[in-house]
Amino acid sequence: MSLRGSRLAVVVLLVAAALPRAASAPDMLPPAAPSPLGLALGLGLPLPGVPLEDADQGRRPSCEEARLKCAYRTGCGRALQMYIVGCSALHHGPPGHCPEACQQALIALTSTDEGKDLMTCQCADDLCEETKRRVEVCRPSVLRATRNESVVSCRVAQWICGADALCSTALEYYHRYCRRMFRGQKCTARCKNSISILRRQDKAAKLDSCWCDGKEEYDCPAIRSNMAQLCFHQAPPRTYAPPDPLPGDVETNELLPKQQSKGGAARARLGAPLLLLVLAAALAAAS
């Protein structure tokens, strides 16, 4: 080979070495920008390069994996943030007490697919196990609220919808296009269409049967009445009254089952404990 040819070969090799090696899809994902929620939890680092979806499907995810996966999904991340705020008293207060705000946050969190992973994840330390034990007091009320036949307050129903990305978007359009209906003036075609889209969302099902508890930031009974009369030419919906607290429960007046549960079937779903455990680590890091 001539000297010129040798030099050309060396140049080609140097250029090839300088080019960035393309990573295959299964090997690496581009790093995600830190989310505000991630920074608040002390999770400013991007997600690991190996996607969680490609992890061994035969094992339960670690609670750290489940927490990261939830934190970086819009709907679940919002519910996770509500949990951190609403359940702070659960981790620092006396055992055996489940605050109302914590119940609501747990209902929203466990209504998401990513949040459900937090129910089956594996603890790696004692702090995680302790959080699991403290959250157990909330389990009965949360499981009742997430049953299909249960009626919840409109605040809780809105939180469940808001924790789902598609339902949250439909709810935003409803708020945008139904303002005149809210004021009792008119139900426009856009408002009717946004209501139709919202009702097609799975996570909006409880909005149809929810009851106004008087703690909303809006006039809940008036809006329900306006929608029935202006949009559907119907009589105002009947008003649900909160049930009496169940023995041994704390602040469970958010829930109104349509029918009594049938012992074994309801208890069978208590098998997966609410392992919303690793979140205590986030609380400790934030304090």
UniProtKB/TrEMBL annotation:
InterPro entries reported for this sequence: GAS1 (IPR039596), GDNF/GAS1 (IPR016017)
GO terms under cellular component: plasma membrane
Keyword flag Acetylation: no
Subcellular location: Cell membrane
One GO process term, biological-process aspect: regulation of cell cycle
Pfam families: GDNF (PF02351)
Domain of life: Eukaryota
PANTHER family membership: GROWTH ARREST-SPECIFIC PROTEIN 1
Name of this chain's protein: Growth arrest-specific protein 1-like
